[in-house]
Predict the 3D structure of the following.
Amino acid sequence: MIARISGKVVEKGTNYLVLDLGGICYEVLIPLTVMQRLDENINRDGTVSLFTYHYAQVEPSRSTPVLIGFLNEIEKEFFEAFITVSGIGPRGAIKALNKPISLIAKAIDEADINFLRSLPGIGQQRAKEIVAKLQNKIGKFGLIKDGEIKEEIKTSDIEEEALAVLVQLEYKKSEALSMVKKALERNSNLKTTEELLNEVYKQKSAR
């Protein structure tokens, strides 16, 4: 049983890493909630240390060893609890854990079925089964400090152009981003950069 693994990151995909351990490379599957915080845990020399869940995926005529990586033992422990729910296997759990574990634990404790249904591969019935199995058993996982994961901000072409103009006008990027966001909330039908900037101006003038 492989409990921990440390090596140099030589390849990184959406939900996996390839680690080089002195010339031998291992593929480690990583839940998205863990992957989102991975970069800040990679050392300057490109190495990372992970706690691993190791199991054999059995298929007709073959058995494939699989490693799933976590940044700490608490994340691994939550994963192990999550897969005790009927119908959720290791690969299903990797897919489902795409939000901070602390928020998932909170949703389970509060029986927030709608939140749990928003997890990939988790439908209405499975969400109810998760609550029935784990409610009042996973409170400590709600204390994990992973709730401030920064989501990638996706912007359209006109937003990008408007941001560039505002930055040239010496607004801080964070301030410009907020101004653009508020303008779009006021009027979501803006089609051009000029219209968007006009809305930003109206918004600023109305203060």
Summary: Confidence is low (pLDDT under 50) at residues 149-155. The CA atoms of residues 136 and 160 lie 45 Å apart. The radius of gyration is 22 Å.
